[in-house]
Amino acid sequence: MEKRRLGKTNLMVSEIGFGGIPIQRISKEESRELIRFSIENGMNFIDTARGYTISEEYIGYAIEDIRDKVIIATKSMARDKISMEKDIEISLSNLKTNYIDIYQLHNIKDEETLKHVMSDEGALKALLDAKKQGKIGHIGITSHSLDLLEKAIEYDVFEIIMYPYNIVEDQATNLFEKAFKKDIGIIVMKPLAGGALDDATLALSYILNNKNISTVIPGMDSKNQVIENVEAASVEFDEEKQNKCKEIKKLYTESFCRRCGYCLPCPQGIDIPFSFILKGYYDRYNLKDWAIDRYKGMQKHASDCIKCGLCETKCPYSLKIRKMLEDVVETFGF
Ligand code: SF4
Ligand code: SF4
Q: Does residue 194's CB lie within 6 angstroms of at least one atom of ligand 2?
């Protein structure tokens, strides 16, 4: 598989990397076999997170004796310095390594949080210290908010950004152009639009056709998926594929949440896009328990919606949010 330069990190990463969420569904031994199989088939980039339960641990177990063959990225939801210091140590221990190539601030949602993580007592300080100490190599930031990443790339500290991009969610095209010009590495998540797209070959070839992108990280839990994804890297994105993508995009236009967050704040305090993300995990990723746990942990739920309609006036995609939240209630029961 071809490799692309991950911006100013100068790391050469496989165009398709191993997304570490779905190995939560398989055993430790199965994960080991799968990860090694993906490396044998040309992937040298693995992405995981502190938040993906056993994912770091399984990856550590899989790569312990072949650490030099892979570039590892992980991330933490820690927002303050002390919590981040702890998480870095846990990641190092789980991944059975003394060096993590990329450590990312996970899912920074708004400017207030960004300011907090960048303050003297914020999580970024711990990452900078760890970098000085040689425990991590590069610092990245992940988000579902386009506005937030537009602001984040103005700071010199972030060498990598991660954001969703796929056939139905291409709103980051300009952001990626700007980031590329600043020599920031671009990692694409959600290549199958949270499982909404079923043609992985088409979806991945669409993404790789954008040369600003360094790598895309579909989640995998079977060898067949690895083979399909590896093959997709060499598929040409021709006119027929372009037209097919246009048709798919049209089809999803009225019912797909792009997680932009413009509908927020909701007067009832409902995190609208996150509700839809969790429904997607429940319906499509077969991570039902995981989704239920996180949904239960939300402060407000879809059932708190009073149907004022304010969110729908702000959604740039004219989604029928009230109806979509009813579907969330139907899925989770509240
Ligand atoms: S319609 Fe429901 S979700 Fe939308 S703003 Fe009103 S209360 Fe919030
Ligand atoms: S419901 Fe609309 S405004 Fe809200 S996050 Fe989704 S796409 Fe954006």
A: no
